[in-house]
Amino acid sequence: MGVTKLLIIISSMTFGGAEMQTLELANGLVDRGYNIEIAVLDHKQEIIDKGRPEIRFHILKKKSYLDRRVVKALKERLSVFQPHLVLCVDLYPALYFRLAAMGSSACLPVATVFHSTLPRDVKERFQRWYLTRLLKKNNRLVFVSEKQKDYWLRTHKGLRLHHSRTIHNGIHLERFHDFLQEEAKITATRRLLAYEPNQVIIGNCSSFRVEKRHQDLLEAVHRLKSDGHPVKLLLIGDGDQRAHIEKRIRELGMEETVYITGHITDVRPYLAVLDVFVLSSDSVETLSIAAIESQAMKKAAVLSDIGGAAEIVEEGINGYLYPAGNVEQLTECLRNILQYERWKPMGEAAYHHARQHFDRRQMVEAYHQLLMEMKGGSHGG
């Protein structure tokens, strides 16, 4: 069938789970001989250097929600590149594709990958309502967790079940797991952070946004500290909520307990020093790349029970789930791990779970099979 040309359309190329998963997928498909171009709607391109040199990026730098100039540029890419297939990463890029493809005689097979579950607010709920109406019959739907798929198909009746499938996010497991052998680097990181051998390190890796609910984790760790547990909190990341988080740290008197890394390009040295990974979000999360990366590094996980968290955490085996926003339950989950020193056996179980379900090779193979069905004109699935 010759070389398959794939155009991927994505909103941004900044640090984030959907963006990192897209690059992992694109790199894996390049290994299979795909010719790939990635159209980035906005100006953010912090992680494009993680893509294979064979991938051509087009940074379109949109200035507004519907930028006619970007639609025109995307229409030009479709004409010049003439892809066999199109992959839209979430609904917003699907809107731009539909606008760019208007008037074209070609009927390109297109798949849309969903990376979110619960909407953040009423505005986002409304946007979903009208954007889902763009998904025509030839559009394949890819969800990254079963629970997410069930939610979307239940709340958006127009989506077609037989055109949808679930493909779990996958990561380069060895890149994370093998870092655990870098004892000198891990020791240096612990020294930098001034951690003592007897201290238990709880951590989070995410952008500092409202829906991530870092304040819940601060409160839980404050309670554990008050109970006498020798805990420290490591917040890996940065974002527009940092000032609010730092203010709350001061209010709780936790300046000596909490360390914030800021933006970093390699999270592995910091994930490596953790004992327990926590994700406390109340929306957006679907199948957290950060949580999977922590599992690859043998960390017990405590996740808010939203999206596909139950497909990452096996309750009581590799971690715990708790209701989003319930600080009391979050604290109790962490207390159970600390009291019985369960972080190491849970971490081992987490690694085995990640190997079984979240290896990028499995993900790339599943997408390859889907894309070949689409290229061949099959409408099954």
Automatic annotation (TrEMBL):
It holds the Pfam family Glyco_transf_4. Its EC number is 2.4.-.-. Keywords: Glycosyltransferase, Transferase. Gene3D superfamilies: Glycogen Phosphorylase B (3.40.50.2000). The keyword Ion transport does not apply. Residues 15-175 form the Glycosyltransferase subfamily 4-like N-terminal domain. GO terms for molecular function: glycosyltransferase activity. InterPro entries: Glyco_trans_4-like_N. The keyword Glycosyltransferase applies. PANTHER family: GLYCOSYLTRANSFERASE (PTHR12526). This is Glycosyltransferase. It comes from Anoxynatronum sibiricum.
